[in-house]
## 1
Amino acid sequence: MRILDTHLHLIYPDRFSYPWLSSYPTLNRPWHIADYFAEAVPLGIESALHMEVDTAEADMLAESEFVLTLPRIAGAIAACRPENMAFVDQIERLSEHAHIKGVRRILHQAPDDLSQSDLFVENIRHLPDYDLSFDLCVRADQLPIGQMLVERAPDVTFILDHCGVPDVTGAGLDPWRDNIRRIAKLPNLNAKISGIVAYSGPDWTVETIRPYIEHLIECFGWDRVVWGSDHPVVTLTGSLTRWVEATHAIISGASEDEKARLLHRNAERIYKV
């Protein structure tokens, strides 16, 4: 079963600045395309969408332009700043690149009110005019404010990153479980099965993460879920190989059609790859 990875981070410190990496010494090094696909291709991953890596603002556009020149990159999700007055100018420049498929503003490390301002919401509402989606990255405790943003921009296609960032080693399934059930009722929101192992501790097993992934699929259905590696962040508590193997174990009871929808078909439709 071929896989389209919807959440690949590539790190080129010789080209771009990544201020946040100073807090993650094990990640603070080059992570290049050839190294990723050397491990990914034998696992069935044939192509990937590059997810912005929170570069310094001056590097945001250049990052996406660069990764689109690399092999097996089917598209890019670019960094953006909807809280700024110049946001529309920014997405106009992004839309000049046919393979930029969406944008993301990281919210799980931002103040809760950032995404709730009228300016932020009004700017996000312009995305359909440029055929761009919005990857929504919020913590489990921020799911209610994420829901408000999705509700206020009903024409925007949203993708909820990292299973809604559940606190697996802390709060556990609740109240994440109820918040996922509520937010999944919004028809313009999809969910990405990715990133969860980074919040599960180094001793995670398939059974540790199974109830989260199964609940996400139950709530969103097989037509609104996509898969992502979150590489190289996944290496903080495991490896790409271990995460792919765990995914296959968890969905082993699904039909071939359901597996195809999760692993590549939905992503091709949602991101228009």
## 2
Amino acid sequence: MSLARSARLMLVVMATAALAACGINSVPTKEEAAKARWADVESAYQRRADLIPNLVATVRGGAESELAILTEVTEARSRASSVQIDADDLSNPEQFQQFEAAQGELSGALSRLLVTVEAYPQITSSRGYDDLRTALESAENRIDNARTKYNAAVQDYNTEIRVFPSSIGANIIHGAEPMEAFKAEAGANEAPDIDAADLTPTGGN
């Protein structure tokens, strides 16, 4: 092999290594990983949404007087289902906050419903409600797990596009922007304060 050819080959190898170091491959790889974790988040929220109609129907059958809270849950589910984020829009803080707020509103409505139902032993003792409650708890655990993994993937991606030398490829070639992550809900680190009065049915039953 001639000296000139060896030199050209060395330059090609060095250029390839330099491009790789500049995030040519690592940035899109980490971006796709974060998008995949986002799909898991959407799936987990959808799993919960699918349980709600049966939950509402079960509660309605034993506590028709709680129509207000049932309506609240149904409407919150509808709003949460209408706010969707495409994987390509995960860098849009406004859309992400709207999604998070809508899902948080549904979480709050569900919590109020479950607390209210505790005052109806004819509901809580039924096998159907018990199964739904267990399935709902499982869905909430899936949501928490999916959000945690998504946040980790986003942190990995956001770090990659900021640090040198990957930031070169991220900014010049990919036009990468930081993705939004879920934030802890207000008061998440505090135990809920439930008044005994909250457990009293609002109507005769």
## 3
Amino acid sequence: MYLIFRCDCGRVLYAKKGVATRKCVCGKTLKVKSRRIFKRVETREDASYAVQQMQDEIYGNTDFKRASEL
């Protein structure tokens, strides 16, 4: 099972259940146990998709583009 939560910087992250800490790309180390859990999903692929969906809801279009598409 994977847990979906947010960092203080606003980024949505996921961690496997039972993991004590997770480091955000902003540099902050978070204690997973003390974070508010938004979703629980079964697989890593579902967790990745859930994070993408939440980021899209928060920040709008976050799709990656190739350099040729810019």
## 4
Amino acid sequence: MPRFYCPQPLAAGATIDLPAAVAHHAWVVRLQPGTTLTLFNGEGGQFDAELLTLDKKGASARILAFTARECELPYPLTLVQALPEAGKMDWIIEKSVELGVAAIVPVLAQRSVVRLSGERAEKRHAHWQGIIVAAAEQSGRNRLPALAPLSQLREFTASAGGAQRILLSPRAQQPLAAWAAARAPQALTVLIGPEGGLTDEEEAAALEGGAIALGLGPRVLRTETAGLAVLATLAAIWGEH
């Protein structure tokens, strides 16, 4: 059943105009009036709806019923990802949404190859937000992970409070799996470096800020693999409920 994100009030029995992006998608894939849709607005749960009208100018739907369906992890996980090169960030965001991340914080580290600021950073942020929406539609999530504005890594490491921070490091002596298995599920913030990793100075600042260094084994993972491996490992050990 097609699923679409509709950031507007939704209620059973209402007839609504679908957002322009949703209408365009429905037109491109040639949905027909009478098709049953699933709509969600990010506030939790989802709605069954019937497509009423569709043309190049727009689309409308009648909302039929609400289902209080949730598939969020019970322990919120935040991914702090140092900006990698080219399109790797798109992949990381898409897959981390599929794996249940609650928030994504893109940061610029000393070894980040890509440098964004001003209008370019704003455009990339909007692009990443679109990836989050598409990944939530595809994966069945009814709530959108939060996406923080791009910031400097030093700003993050200097901040205090919040969930326990995990620094994934190839030099760490303690394995993530063993650490997680000895603890109850909890909110975590996971920090992943860019290509080439974090500098010694950046790792030291993260540890001084309360992070603990954990590893994933003897192999060095790429930046686009590491965070996803952490999310998958935690879900496997702590479960989904």
